[in-house]
Amino acid sequence: MTATTLSVEVEGADEVALALRRIGADVHDLKPVMSDVGDYLKDFFAGEVFASRGGVIGHPWARLSPVYAAQKARKYAGRGVLVATGEMQRSFISNAAPMQVEITNTARHFVYHQSDAARRILPYRPMMDVRSGDTRYDRIVEMLVAHVAKAIKENT
Predict the structure, then answer these.
(1) Where are the domains of the chain?
(2) Per residue in 14-34, pLDDT tens?
(3) Is 3 left (phi over 0), alpha (psi -120 to 50) or beta?
(4) Contact, 81 vs 51, CB < 8 A?
């Protein structure tokens, strides 16, 4: 099942912190870089995912039904899939902690589009996905490594 909250967490945080302390770098609070990761992902989900209609995360969104497309064209002319008022696109939030960041979307309908639960009417149109080896994952790792490398340099 696709989660409605995405969490990026440093695994083995205690072991990493201990190893870094041994070389003189005290990295026990990654909240600043976790906040940056949250901002990066919020911008990506609200920007590239919507612009590509899910294609950039490997989940192209289904077209609107002909009936709904006609209704939407009358009320929200020129607006893309999942963009009527723009609320869903603007509602990504993140909450950074010392060793993790959680990203979700506060729009009321988000959970229905993001969930891959069985459905009959509303198509699966996920907006958040990060997998090991994809560009976003690699960028997150780069951000974390740069932060830790800076801490090591400043403390050695």
Answers:
(1) 13-59+86-155
(2) 776 666 666 555 566 789 999
(3) beta
(4) no
